[in-house]
Amino acid sequence: MIQTILTLNAGSSSLKFALFAEDDDVPLASGLVDRIGNEGTIRLRDALGADIATAPGDLASHPAALQLVLASLDAAFPQADIRAIGHRVVHGGPDFATPALIDDAVVATIEALAPFAPLHQPHNIAGIRAAQAAFPGTPQVACFDTAFHRNHPWVNDTFALPRAYYDKGVRRYGFHGLSYDYISGELARTSPQIHAGRVVVAHLGNGASMCAMENGRSVASTMGFSALDGLPMGTRSGQLDPGVVLFLMEQENLGPAEISDLLYRKSGLLGLSGLSNDMRVLEAAETTEAAEAIDYFVFRVQRELGAMAAAMGGIDALVFCGGIGENARNIRARICERMGWMGIAIDPAANEGNSRVISSADAKTTVLIIPTNEELVIARAARSLAASAERTVAA
Ligand code: ADP
Prior knowledge:
Layout (H helix, E strand, L loop, with lengths): L1 E9 L4 E7 L7 E6 L6 E6 L15 H15 L3 E10 L10 E2 L2 H9 L8 H14 L5 E5 L18 H5 L9 H14 L1 H4 L2 E7 L3 E7 L2 E5 L20 H9 L5 H10 L2 H6 L5 H6 L3 H25 L4 E5 H6 L1 H9 L10 H5 L13 E4 L4 H21 L1
Parallel strand pairs: 1-5, 5-7, 8-11, 11-12
Antiparallel strand pairs: 1-2, 2-3, 3-4, 6-7, 8-9, 9-10
Helix pairs in contact: 1-3, 5-15, 11-13
Bound molecules: adenosine-5'-diphosphate (ADP).
Adenosine-5'-diphosphate (ADP) binds next to α10 and α12.
């Protein structure tokens, strides 16, 4: 038998998963169930990226999808014994600053936080429930996207509202914490001098945010109370004057569900371009609207880069990650183009080749590309908390 760790990342209509051998950082397999419901698809790949056949079954609901994932993994890796399961949970509220071993009290707290992330948290809870039913007695660990940001200075943790709202939990939480945690660990491992300095990490994917890190710890983030704030994203607006929401309510007569749909699903690159949320599609398109959507994205990244550096009194390094950050050469080059005032200068050949270091040799600020790996952060936490739970039981 191989002892393994399963990671699960349950979204509204998707389930991302990976299976790690206990002593290996490269997953044995990883995959995605997409469009859970009527037209669900499942994709499972091995460590080298080759497709693995999946078991037949339906993908009508999250529990059904998990069953199919488990059956497929079981068929592909009959010798795998799942020792612990790690879950991505979007919201850990004010208190969870580290991953947590899941028990009834932890589930109750995660459920109580659902109003803070109504579009995501219920799906994370469904994933936990489905895994608990499939593996009763197996340790399960919750890894929170907010946890990495929990030690922000107060000025980066609050809004200028009456204090009662802060006490009710209306705070700047920040998200993408698992990605930033991974990048921080990679910097500590490979570039300790940079890790010890002032680093802005730009996680630019379908969701996008930036994090200011001093000595490997988050001190500010572009995302705030929700994952809507900060940068424009595939379908999310990013930072918005709250007066716009009042206008939508009072003059356009939109209700909460319609405003939520507008800001989460119809805005960002999709809303501006009227074409797509996908950066590759926009880069290939030849319409003015697609070009303007990219212009807006680049401008807002530059603006927030200045804000993140200001939060630290300067910048020593910039790290790109996420689908756009890791792959979109032209977008990286354009972002960096007007940031010479903060010591940023790109080596065009290094940028073109997606090299690890893409800044020019004499640039004051180092610019890096580090592919992020949220699954590995979850697997490591599950591994470590499961081991400590076993030690407690044994003691
Ligand atoms: P998610 O937040 O869903 O995990 P990803 O991190 O996978 O998203 O990022 C998806 C985004 O990355 C999409 O906008 C996609 O177009 C973009 N992307 C991926 N590869 C490239 C590329 N080669 N050039 C430009 N954009 C890319």
